[in-house]
Design goal:
alpha+beta, about 30% helix, binds cytidine-5'-monophosphate
């Protein structure tokens, strides 16, 4: 491509998630753990811009350290691109510009959001016209949380988290997110859970409780807080004992409840209102934390800027 050739780009974004409830069964023959989970999308989004380029490369920008993010073929967005190029003999190359907002390897599906946003943006860039169902199948290939990152909003997840049942909610929940300065590997946390459980064979419950569903639908933080649950929390605490202090600090700062998000190490605190979340975050800041205040969101992965040339 010459210097004055048009740049052709598309931009999409996708939400962070938290698991308001996460029940994990014993691993199946492939090593994956069957789940029952309450996925909740947040008003905290990753943005991915894709631009046609002579060679594929990745630029990652964030208000925090992203040295843990690979910029080569192992990055999930590069794997998303390979799903678009596979059926064609001509390789397609793009520059990915990822604007990160979601803590890296924090149990909030930041990489999955990058993948979901990339699927939407690449579908536009290449004008492939894949349907939502086709993008969903591609998402499943990329990772357990990627289908939810495409769907967003509130959804019950089963299986590997890819069997999704959307739920409509009446009101937002307000959350304080406390990222950690270290990362936890998802497979390592699942392995630690298996070690903690020993030989016992467990299956996740078939349903979330009626009380949990009612509180979630209503956005009733007081009712929901004591019902939140994360089977991975004891495993995350074994690998990172300092998280116990973080959980206590978030509750001492006034959150109704603090739990580890997914496989951690991010901790989420539930608040009654935006103002309450702001107060909790301010107290945590005075104790040296760098919390983020956010709320739940019904938005899916979306195209932010359609195909353009400049
Ligand atoms: O699918 P994803 O890439 O997010 O998962 C990363 C790893 O976490 C898997 O390879 C597996 O070891 C573990 N995992 C699991 N059970 C799940 C989800 C993830 O064992 N339901």
């Amino acid at each position: 491509m010459s210097d004055d050739a048009p740049l052709v780009s598309a931009t999409a974004s996708a939400p962070a998630k938290v698991n308001l409830a996460l029940y994990v069964g014993s691993p199946d023959l492939s090593g994956f753990h069957p789940l029952l989970t309450a996925f909740q999308g947040l008003d905290l989004r990753e943005t991915v811009r894709v631009t046609l380029a002579p060679e594929t490369s990745i630029i990652c920008e964030a208000p925090f350290d992203t040295s843990g993010v690979p910029l080569d073929e192992s990055n999930i967005v590069w794997r998303a691109l390979s799903l678009f190029t596979q059926p064609h003999s001509d390789a397609r190359s793009v520059l990915f510009r990822i604007e990160k907002r979601i803590p890296v390897a924090g149990g909030m599906a930041g990489g999955s959001a990058d993948a979901a946003a990339s699927l939407v943006a690449l579908n536009e860039l290449f004008q492939t016209g894949y349907s939502h169902a086709q993008l969903f199948e591609m998402a499943r290939e990329l990772g357990s949380d990627v289908p939810f990152s495409l769907l967003g909003g509130s959804a019950i997840g089963r299986g590997r988290g890819d069997q999704l049942e959307s739920l409509s909610t009446e009101d937002s929940l307000h959350l304080v997110i406390v990222p950690s300065t270290f990362e936890l590997s998802t497979p390592a946390v699942y392995r630690e859970l298996d070690t903690l459980r020993g030989e016992s064979e467990l299956t996740p419950p078939a349903q979330l409780s009626v009380e949990f569903l009612a509180a979630w639908r209503a956005g009733d933080a007081d009712a929901l807080a004591p019902l939140m649950h994360n089977d991975l929390e004891p495993a995350a605490l074994r690998l990172a004992p300092s998280l116990l202090g973080v959980l206590k600090d978030v509750e001492h700062a006034g959150a109704l409840r603090a739990i580890v998000s997914g496989s951690g190490p991010t901790v989420i605190g539930v608040a009654r209102s935006a103002q309450h979340a702001g107060e909790v975050a301010n107290r945590l800041r005075t104790s040296g934390y760098q919390p983020l205040v956010t709320q739940t969101s019904p938005r899916a992965a979306e195209l932010d800027a359609p195909l353009f040339q400049d």
